């Protein structure tokens, strides 16, 4: 005999726990299942252990999707301020680090405790180390087989996340269920991920490993001004992670090494101020020394010649490389380190108000498995909360 619940949520991550709590608060019997031994492990490791739980500048433009309008409704109905109010009710405090990114003052575990408490107080049940093995639609809802028992539920919410960090238990379960019910899946790809290189560039970057500098990194039609970090494998840091979400294989990225400045003016001023210095040394006035040394080798100028002996015209011509240094990554570090998954369940198959599959009443998809991917900086959790809230209200009958 199968167990009976109004709502079964598969995936006890940020979105699944929150959705279960909202549904429970609306009087529904709720079971949340996860195959992992602990819930919400990505919340635990997020934000360097301090969970960047939202961004006060959340706006639909900070999300990638085949349908950029899809996220609007859910984001408008559950805002960053709403989650802050919830944090406050649980006695949690936070601080803004930069660019509207709110980090928990307590450890990330406090946010997990908040989610678990909300679920428990709403009467929801959490069951870990349970593997869903099959989903079928019945006349009254869904029948879900697991490795321990069978469950009948009137509504089924899929919140099993995306493919990033497989060693933490990420699976393509949500995509399999979507395909089983005839929903399209936009090919998932690693996003917010370091970029890798080969050949000379890889060697150049590896030599600079550990150097960080502010840049504007552009890929596709997006540009981000933040820090860039050189690593043994290539490039990382917030600017690169952000740009990676917009980067398509074989495409170039462009780096402005002097964001907010006119590169030609900077070079000519360096010449006036340091006429006896060679270019590579003089550039060290405006860039980290090791980067200045490396990049001067990429400029169409004699790097050993004294700056005072190079014409202003030549300097102005070379400035383009500093303000728009273009090169093509060979790839990304992939699922192993990608912070999120771009692509996912095609939003055209879902209601933007409720996250319910239009062609399968009672079946919902929320969180990272949906083709909505936020920028770095708390946007992905805000999407998890907002999509969970939308589905939680819907399955709760509101
Ligand atoms: C290192 C790192 C740091 C991050 N930091 C931030 C941050 O500071 N701010 C931010 O906004 N975002 C951050 N993110 C992104 C954020 O963690 C995710 O966007 C968010 O967790 C997605 O929530 P979700 O509930 O959809 O999926 P998840 O949190 O991934 O939860 C999915 C759950 O489903 C379970 N599951 C998967 N497959 C199955 C299956 N087959 N059967 C049963 N259960 C299954 C998993 O065990 C997991 O518990 C970070 C991500 C990483 C990897």
Radius of gyration: 24 Å
Helix proportion: 25-40%
* Major sheet: 7 strands, mixed
Q: Care to count the β-strands?
A: 21
Indicate the CATH architecture of the largest domain: 3-Layer(bba) Sandwich
The 3D shape can be described as: elongated
The oligomeric state of the chains shown is single chain
Structural features, described:
The longest helix has 17 residues, at 379-395. The chain has helices at 14-25, 41-45, 72-77, 80-89, 109-121, 173-180, 199-207, 238-244, 263-273, 279-282, 289-296, 312-323, 379-395; strands at 3-10, 30-33, 52-55, 63-64, 94-96, 101-104, 125-127, 132-138, 141-146, 150-158, 185-191, 195-196, 212-219, 222-230, 234-236, 253-256, 325-327, 331-332, 340-345, 363-365, 373-374. The chain is elongated, with a radius of gyration of 24 Å. The chain has 13 helices and 21 strands. Strands 1, 2, 7, 8, 9, 10 and 20 form a seven-stranded mixed sheet that branches. It has a seven-stranded antiparallel sheet with strand order 17-16-13-14-15-12-18. Helix 9 (263-273) crosses helix 12. It is of the alpha+beta class. 31% of the residues lie in helices and 25% in strands. The structure holds flavin-adenine dinucleotide.
Note the main attributes of this structure:
398 residues, alpha+beta, FAD/NAD(P)-binding domain, 7-stranded antiparallel sheet, 21 strands, 31% helix, elongated, binds flavin-adenine dinucleotide
